[in-house]
């Protein structure tokens, strides 16, 4: 298929030959996939917005196999696209042209778990939800959670530095990942798989690979610090009349819930409309312009209930929230969470979706949605705002019935200029992939981007690892 409009030129990588396939089949017998019907789904991204034309899907099980494949590809100048669960939202997980797809899906073993320290070590292809289930049986949880948990893999999470719904409480993967094993572009295995809380021996190299989107190395194993499973979890779904009240509720909530607050998320009434229309999810409370999902996680149900009760009473008394419902039991907790987690899915039913994942100062978050609506007038089908408001992260999504270049031209660069004027980030948690890489300068100075280019050139001189991704066109 022809490359997407605006796609970069194909770089002069080799094309896969019969000899190459013979080599791959020797290393990965039965796991070198060339049947076009089987390769097809790995060529298309979750949003169905990108389509590559790879003819080879490799499914290693061991680090040593990854190492042999990459060493060979480097010597043959063959480009490789590392792929986890293929849930990425910026076109980073699928090939642009005929890059070999290296899937970690069969690298799904847990290597060790220490029930005293809570340190889990596993292969990169473990699905996030499977890790969560494994840990829950042992009274622990993963420090991250996201709507894509049923498909995304821990290697992909680390490669994108995924944030998600628990970042407010447990921090980013830059803090919770304790060690990584990475196959470098020349096939060397970099063993930084330490399981230590503290280790200041030289530069912290693993940090380079967290968020590097497959461009610096293939992550093969991860060691991660996991929190204890909370004994009591409560979720509240609240309605607010204005964004200012929502922010005041956040402030109050931080003060009154303190250490038990584990998530503070929001969605607007347009998201609710899409949940109602496309997924038939009814509003659990009365209609409001804004909705908040607050989660508490603590060790004492009585203590937590009391704190939550006091907070709700105060929030209602000071008219910060106008309606709400509380869940303590598992099925209702899940139902309330799905009102937030399934907005992305609802959007896919609304039409072609333009996605913006923006970090902004808290006070400015919703102004961007308002300004965008005004700026676009009637040109978009829906303009919705939701996200990890507690982390200062807005998900601004705009839909149209079909792909609409004129609409896109009205959105960009407006959205990026707006973001840069507040010194925000044009990619808070999804990465740059193919779609956002050329906008990096809105959030990073050219000096920083130049240094990124130097690091890439040092670690992957032939540029075989996930070409056309993350770095802008002018950095080679
Ligand atoms: P993929 O999509 O397969 O790959 C993503 C990138 O990482 C690609 O560039 C790929 O080349 C690279 N990569 C994958 N595995 C490796 C590896 N082993 N070594 C090196 N590079 C690798 N993101 C958030 O941050 N927060 C959210 O709340 C969130 N919610 C989501 C909800 C839904 C419904 C969906 C569809 C996506 C969501 N995402 C979210 C996007 C997020 O980036 C991914 O869900 C996830 O982190 C990607 O993991 P994956 O295994 O699917 O990786
Ligand atoms: C979320 O927080 C994800 O739900 C997806 O990061 C956001 O689809 C989006 O824009
Ligand atoms: Zn998100």
From TrEMBL:
<dbReference type="InterPro" id="IPR016169">
    <property type="entry name" value="FAD-bd_PCMH_sub2"/>
</dbReference>
<keyword id="KW-0560">Oxidoreductase</keyword>
<dbReference type="GO" id="GO:0046872">
    <property type="term" value="F:metal ion binding"/>
</dbReference>
<dbReference type="InterPro" id="IPR006094">
    <property type="entry name" value="Oxid_FAD_bind_N"/>
</dbReference>
<dbReference type="GO" id="GO:0051990">
    <property type="term" value="F:(R)-2-hydroxyglutarate dehydrogenase activity"/>
</dbReference>
<dbReference type="Pfam" id="PF02913">
    <property type="entry name" value="FAD-oxidase_C"/>
</dbReference>
<keyword id="KW-0496">Mitochondrion</keyword>
<dbReference type="GO" id="GO:0005739">
    <property type="term" value="C:mitochondrion"/>
</dbReference>
<dbReference type="GO" id="GO:0071949">
    <property type="term" value="F:FAD binding"/>
</dbReference>
<dbReference type="InterPro" id="IPR016164">
    <property type="entry name" value="FAD-linked_Oxase-like_C"/>
</dbReference>
<dbReference type="InterPro" id="IPR016171">
    <property type="entry name" value="Vanillyl_alc_oxidase_C-sub2"/>
</dbReference>
<feature type="domain" description="FAD-binding PCMH-type">
    <location>
        <begin position="50"/>
        <end position="229"/>
    </location>
</feature>
<protein>
    <recommendedName>
        <fullName>D-2-hydroxyglutarate dehydrogenase, mitochondrial</fullName>
        <ecNumber>1.1.99.39</ecNumber>
    </recommendedName>
</protein>
<comment type="function">
    <text>Catalyzes the oxidation of D-2-hydroxyglutarate (D-2-HG) to alpha-ketoglutarate. Also catalyzes the oxidation of other D-2-hydroxyacids, such as D-malate (D-MAL) and D-lactate (D-LAC). Exhibits high activities towards D-2-HG and D-MAL but a very weak activity towards D-LAC.</text>
</comment>
<comment type="similarity">
    <text>Belongs to the FAD-binding oxidoreductase/transferase type 4 family.</text>
</comment>
<dbReference type="GO" id="GO:0006108">
    <property type="term" value="P:malate metabolic process"/>
</dbReference>
<keyword id="KW-0274">FAD</keyword>
<keyword id="KW-0285">Flavoprotein</keyword>
<dbReference type="Pfam" id="PF01565">
    <property type="entry name" value="FAD_binding_4"/>
</dbReference>
<dbReference type="InterPro" id="IPR051264">
    <property type="entry name" value="FAD-oxidored/transferase_4"/>
</dbReference>
<dbReference type="InterPro" id="IPR036318">
    <property type="entry name" value="FAD-bd_PCMH-like_sf"/>
</dbReference>
<keyword id="KW-0809">Transit peptide</keyword>
<dbReference type="InterPro" id="IPR004113">
    <property type="entry name" value="FAD-bd_oxidored_4_C"/>
</dbReference>
<keyword id="KW-0479">Metal-binding</keyword>
<dbReference type="InterPro" id="IPR016167">
    <property type="entry name" value="FAD-bd_PCMH_sub1"/>
</dbReference>
<keyword id="KW-0862">Zinc</keyword>
<dbReference type="InterPro" id="IPR016166">
    <property type="entry name" value="FAD-bd_PCMH"/>
</dbReference>
């Amino acid at each position: 298929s022809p490359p997407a409009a605006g796609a970069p030129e194909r770089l002069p990588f080799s094309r896969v030959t019969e000899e190459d396939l013979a080599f791959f089949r020797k290393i990965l017998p039965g796991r070198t996939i060339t049947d076009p019907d089987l390769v097809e789904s790995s060529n298309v991204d979750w949003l169905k917005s990108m389509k590559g034309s790879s003819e080879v899907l490799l499914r290693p099980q061991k680090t040593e196999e990854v190492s042999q494949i990459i060493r060979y590809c480097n010597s043959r100048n063959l480009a490789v696209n590392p792929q986890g669960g293929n849930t990425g939202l910026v076109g980073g997980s699928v090939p642009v042209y005929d890059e070999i797809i290296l899937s970690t899906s069969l690298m799904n073993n847990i290597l060790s778990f220490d029930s005293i320290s809570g340190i889990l070590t596993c292969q990169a292809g473990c699905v996030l939800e499977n890790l969560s289930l494994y840990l829950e049986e042992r009274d622990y949880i993963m420090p991250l959670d996201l709507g894509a948990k049923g498909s995304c893999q821990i290697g992909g999470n680390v490669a994108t530095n995924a944030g998600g719904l628990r970042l407010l409480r447990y921090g980013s993967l830059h803090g919770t990942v304790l060690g990584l094993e990475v196959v470098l572009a020349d096939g060397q295995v970099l063993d930084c798989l330490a399981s230590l809380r503290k280790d200041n021996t030289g530069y912290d190299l693993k940090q380079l690979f967290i968020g590097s989107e497959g461009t610096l190395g293939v992550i093969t194993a991860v060691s991660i610090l996991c929190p204890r499973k909370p004994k009591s979890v409560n979720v509240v779904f609240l309605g607010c009349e204005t964004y200012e009240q929502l922010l005041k509720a956040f402030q109050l909530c931080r003060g009154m819930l303190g250490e038990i607050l584990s998530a503070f998320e929001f969605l607007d009434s347009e998201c609710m409309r899409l949940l109602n229309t496309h997924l038939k999810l009814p509003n659990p409370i009365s209609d409001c312009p804004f909705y908040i999902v607050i989660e508490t996680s603590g060790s004492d149900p009585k203590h937590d209930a009391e704190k939550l009760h006091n907070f709700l009473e105060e929030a209602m008394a000071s008219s910060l929230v106008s309606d709400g419902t509380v869940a303590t039991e598992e099925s209702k907790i899940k139902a309330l969470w799905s009102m937030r987690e399934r907005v992305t899915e609802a959007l896919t039913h609304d039409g072609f979706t333009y996605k913006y994942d923006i970090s902004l100062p808290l006070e400015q978050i919703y102004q961007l949605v308002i300004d965008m609506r005004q700026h676009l007038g009637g040109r978009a089908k829906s303009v919705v705002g939701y996200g990890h408001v507690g982390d200062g992260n807005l998900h601004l999504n705009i839909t149209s019935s079909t792909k609409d270049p004129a609409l896109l031209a009205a959105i960009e660069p407006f959205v990026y200029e707006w973001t840069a004027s507040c010194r925000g980030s044009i990619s808070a948690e999804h990465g740059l992939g193919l779609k956002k890489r050329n906008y990096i300068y809105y959030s990073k100075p050219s000096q920083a981007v130049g240094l990124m280019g130097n690091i890439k050139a040092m670690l992957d001189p032939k540029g075989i690892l996930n070409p056309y991704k993350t770095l802008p066109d002018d950095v080679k």
